[in-house]
Amino acid sequence: MEFVVNVIPKLSSMILQLIATVILFFILKHFLHEPVSKYMNERQNKIQNDIDDAKSLKGEALELKTQYEISINEAKAEGQEIIESARKRGEEIKEDIIKEAKVEADGIIERARKEIEREKEKALDEIKVQAGDMAILIASKVIDEELDTNLQNDLIDKFIDEVGMDKWQN
User: Fold this and answer.
1) Contact indicator for 127, 168 with CB cutoff of 8 Å
2) Which spans of this chain does the record mark as coiled coil (predicted)?
């Protein structure tokens, strides 16, 4: 068996091949080109729409991000105002409590002073009575005579008036 290799094909075979290719081209163009072109155009349009939608969504997202950042900053500012207001109110309450405590302490001190004054007067009255009783006892021993109660009280009052309150308080 012998193989023949032709470098240049036969003219009849070439023409038949050319005719078959042209027919195949028109058949494929008629049946495949339009649907494939239509599909490619639709796909291109869909991709472009998706890109446009993505750009639109990105713009909306950026706008929302800006709005959220503004809202967050406003919330932070409002939080700071609330904290500052609460701190001021706390200071006012503290000052009110201190004032009330001072008023109460002053009242307690004043009541204590009055009580001390009453106790002092009571003690002075007791000292006066005891001094009078001692004076009468001494006087009765000296004169060896018993005095009546009215006369004793008169003598005590006279003695206290003569000596004076200044000497009793010192």
Assistant:
1) yes
2) 102-133
Write the secondary structure of 68-113 as one string of H (helix), E (strand) and C (coil): HHHHHHHHHHHHHHHHHHHHHHHHHHHHHHHHHHHHHHHHHHHHHH
SS3 5: coil
Under a CB-based contact definition with an 8 Å cutoff, are residues 139 and 155 in contact? yes
Sign of the dihedral defined by the CA atoms of residues 99, 104, 106, 107, in that order: positive
Q: Domain extents for the chain? A: 47-169
Q: Is 124 within 8 Å of 168 (Cβ atoms)?
A: yes
Confirm if 156 and 128 have CB atoms less than 8 A apart: yes
Structure tokens at 140: 């009765």
Could you report the per-residue pLDDT of 30-69, keeping only the tens digit for each?
888 888 888 999 999 999 999 999 999 999 999 999 999 9
Query: How many whole angstroms separate alpha carbon 59 and alpha carbon 66?
Result: 11
The whole-angstrom separation of Cα 75 and Cα 79 is 6
